[in-house]
Amino acid sequence: MRQGGSRTSVVEIILAIILPPLAVFLHDGIGTSFWINIILTLLFFLPGVIHALLVVTDTI
């Protein structure tokens, strides 16, 4: 039986790949990580995805 938290993580990971700023916003709200992710995504898409994955998985 799966817990609700793991399903949310999967959705956040999928969002981090498709729309990185949205995933960071849903995970942390509007804060420093969100604005850093916006800048990374606008300048280079891949660093934005990597940063979003790190934020969503609570690695950073």
TrEMBL record:
Record carries keyword Lipid metabolism: no
Keyword Nucleotide-binding on entry: no
Record's protein name: Hydrogenase expression protein
Native source organism of the sequence: Pontibacter flavimaris
GO cellular component: membrane
Compartments it resides in: Membrane
Record family assignment: Belongs to the UPF0057 (PMP3) family.
Main location: membrane
Keyword annotations from UniProtKB, A to Z: Membrane, Transmembrane, Transmembrane helix
Matches recorded under InterPro entries: PMP3
Chain segments annotated as transmembrane: 9-27, 33-56
Pfam families: Pmp3
Organism classification: Bacteria, Pseudomonadati, Bacteroidota, Cytophagia, Cytophagales
Leader sequence residues: none
